[in-house]
Write a structure and sequence with these properties.
about 170 residues; mainly alpha; 4 helices; rod-shaped
């Protein structure tokens, strides 16, 4: 085994390990953003509900009059709940991610007589597999965050409609 092969294996392993650590930070940041998104959803609802007041909800007849007096409110509640639902999907992931490798695995394979080069190559390959699996989860998490924010801001036009109709 040459020193250059071992050095290359170390570089490869370090790159794969850095990718896992980067993904761990990415997922943590997405979860923090989802918490902020849920807070924004609540803030939007609180501000507009305060502007409307209890009298506004009581007197609200809706844009469709007697046919569907509260359709806008149901749409608004669906947007609010959906936004929170997608935030929760980001914060509480049901999918498995792997950012750490097993020290027991290294010890077991070292005891089996594998060389340092073989161990580093195997660890680098394993880290790459984990990174590929994690990427699927991270992309789904980003999608959930996007929907959470879009649905949060989509409340605003319905709140404006309700405010306008309650003032008539």
């Amino acid at each position: 085994m040459s020193d250059s092969s071992l050095d290359l294996a170390k570089i490869t392993f370090d790159m794969a390990r850095a990718q896992l650590l980067s993904q761990k930070d990415d997922l943590r940041n997405l979860r923090n953003q989802a918490s902020f998104g849920a807070a924004i959803t609540g803030l939007i609802a609180t501000v507009f509900a305060t502007l409307l007041g209890s009298e506004g909800f009581r007197d609200f007849r809706g844009l469709a009059g007697d046919v569907a007096p509260i359709a806008e409110i149901w749409i608004l509640l669906a947007l609010f709940a959906s936004s929170l639902f997608f935030s929760i999907l980001v914060i509480v992931s049901w999918s498995s991610v792997t950012f750490e490798q097993s020290a027991d695995w290294v010890i077991q394979h070292a005891n089996e007589g594998r060389s340092d080069l073989e161990l580093l190559q195997a660890l680098a390959k394993e880290a790459e597999v984990f990174a590929d699996q994690n990427e699927v989860v991270i992309l789904a998490t980003m999608n959930h965050l996007w929907w959470s924010l879009v649905l949060s801001w989509a409340q605003i036009p319905f709140w404006v409609l309700i405010l306008m109709e309650s003032r008539v």
